[in-house]
Amino acid sequence: MFYSSLIDGLGKTGRVDEAERLFEEMSEKGCTRDSYCYNALIDAFTKHGKVDEALALFKRMEEEEGCDQTVYTYTILISGMFKEHRNEEALKLWDMMIDKGITPTAACFRALSTGLCLSGKVARACKILDELAPMGVILDAACEDMINTLCKAGRIKEACKLADGITERGREVPGRIRTVMINALRKVGKADLAMKLMHSKIGIGYERMGSVKRRVKFTTLLETCFDSDF
């Protein structure tokens, strides 16, 4: 843990070359390099754009020293690949992790879904989200992360579709997510729509239409109120 903490600290302060030297010195001194040490250096590499070096180290950790490639290892690499716009490689890493029987954490899916949403692959992110259900990953939390990401990117329509997915499972959209969506609408000049959402039953209950009680959808509000160029 001592070496991994040092490597991590050097990486976080941008001293990646020193972190790498310390990592290599461990082997020369007969010190065992565990997953913590590998992850610390892989993290340093990805955060400073050295994803090829990170991938090489990723292969070494299993082939040369038999270290476990943990879900955290994959999370670091997936995030790093998306940051460098190497989306297909990020997806291959995800598939590799699933094939190895490693259960993704919420943080791991967050790295994947953020990268996919920001690169326009929202449908792919949603498909993977559905595949996670049997693994016990908390879907609502994952959906919230994706909605937040899409709203920050100004992609309100896609965010609304995901929000409807939560209500279709019989759940309420949390107030914090409604707030994110309201603020996103304001930022794109849709203050009137933001106010309508603020005072509506969308995502939090039902509205009665005569004798019929129905849950109002976010996308319905969009279709009736959004300009065609939005």
From TrEMBL:
<keyword id="KW-0677">Repeat</keyword>
<dbReference type="Pfam" id="PF13041">
    <property type="entry name" value="PPR_2"/>
</dbReference>
<protein>
    <recommendedName>
        <fullName>Pentatricopeptide repeat-containing protein</fullName>
    </recommendedName>
</protein>
<dbReference type="InterPro" id="IPR011990">
    <property type="entry name" value="TPR-like_helical_dom_sf"/>
</dbReference>
<feature type="repeat" description="PPR">
    <location>
        <begin position="1"/>
        <end position="33"/>
    </location>
</feature>
<feature type="repeat" description="PPR">
    <location>
        <begin position="34"/>
        <end position="64"/>
    </location>
</feature>
<dbReference type="InterPro" id="IPR002885">
    <property type="entry name" value="PPR_rpt"/>
</dbReference>
<feature type="repeat" description="PPR">
    <location>
        <begin position="70"/>
        <end position="104"/>
    </location>
</feature>
<dbReference type="Pfam" id="PF01535">
    <property type="entry name" value="PPR"/>
</dbReference>
